[in-house]
Each structure stands twice: as structure tokens, then as C-alpha cells.
Amino acid sequence: MLAWELLGSGLVPGSTHIMSLLRRGDELVIRVDDRELMGSRVHGSEDALADLACDRLRDCTAARVLVGGLGMGFTLAAALRRVGSAGQVVVAELVPVVVDWNRGVVGAVAGHPLEDPRVGVHEGDVGALIRKSGQAWDVVLLDVDNGPTALTRADNAGLYGRQGLDALHAALRPGGVAAVWSAAPDVSFTRRFEQAGFEVDVVEVRARGKKGGRRHTIWLGKRRDDRPR
Q1: How many domains does the chain have?
Q2: pTM of the predicted protein model
Q3: Which residues are within 8 A (CB) of 140 and not within 5 positions of it... i.e. 6 or more apart?
């Protein structure tokens, strides 16, 4: 069996964790320390994150979409397939080397989405961007951790608490949709999401798309304008 080859690494800002890019044959993986975060062969649920959110929007063709977490570019590429020429997709990525990898060796696995003229890149914390957005987004897609409790960075906990979800509600336009990816379900997060003023659906999707038994969880929250105070 081929050995894994280390292609690059970088520190996750605000932590002591190291993010690494490795290759074995034609397969790429990104790890945080010794834990695999994502791979080039398993991205069905990352595609579904964008597709399911856009399905719940009245019209996604001219949507303004925020993607939290670039990863290997699969969610970004899926969002670009759903918006038209008038749409815009901004991807927020905290770890600078991840952007560099996607502009280099990783770019091909998702079809080089960063080269699309509809894409803007924000190198920084997606939570901070959400908090200062106003009603800026039709869709917000969050895939920055392995879930609301499986955090790659302690500061990300603020995204999934009540204040973070209130900020997410405020950042969406009326009728907007927020979607959150997770490796596993979390009943308490579902409850917080609803309490923050969202009509919530919880969907289990296959990690590999149509193949395999491994499943991931996606929360889909449609912004309610009549939320209780």
C-alpha cells in the first residue's frame, strides 16, 4: 500500500492544532493533528449542504451565499452550480494555508471553484463576518467543524450557541436559509436553532452521496420573522 505523503501544514489560528494536507496516490485528505477532517473521495454530504439549502430558497439563481469553511471546495462548488450569473458566493476560511492549497494542488478535486468570478474569499473568522453582516445573505452554509460539539477550534463554540444563532438569524435576509453540517446528530443544537427563530429540518445524508452506509447530519433553518422575543 502506498504511504501518505505530507504536502503541507499550518497552524489553526487561535489554537495549538496543526492542519495538514496529505496525498496517497490520487487521494487527498486534510487532517487536524491526527484526526481526518475531510477527504477528496467522500464529499456527498458537503455537496448536499448547498443543494438542500438552495432547495428551500424560493429562488437561488441570484442568491448571495456565504460558505463558512472552504475545506476542499466541494460545498463552494455545489453552491456555484445553483446560483446564476447574478449570484455571488463568498467563502470564509480561517486557515490561510487551506486557501493556498485550494489555489494549488487541491483545486482540481472540486473543479477549481476559486477561479470562478462569482467567488469572493474572506480570510478570517466566519463568525465575526456573520456578526457584522446585517441582513446580507440569502443562504449561509456552515461547515467549519465536525459538528456543534466536535470543534476544531474552541472559539467556534460561539457559532453554535444562542448568541451565535441570533447573529446568524440577523445576517439572513427575510426568507433566508442557514444550513449546518455535522458528523453526528445533536438534539440540544436542534432545540437552540429553533429557539433562535428558525423553522428547522434535520436531514441525514450519505457521506458518499448515493453509496455507502455512513451518514452525516445537516440542519436546515429557514429564517422566521415572527420569532418570539
Answers
A1: 1
A2: 0.93
A3: 65, 66, 68, 130, 168, 171, 172, 176, 177, 178, 179
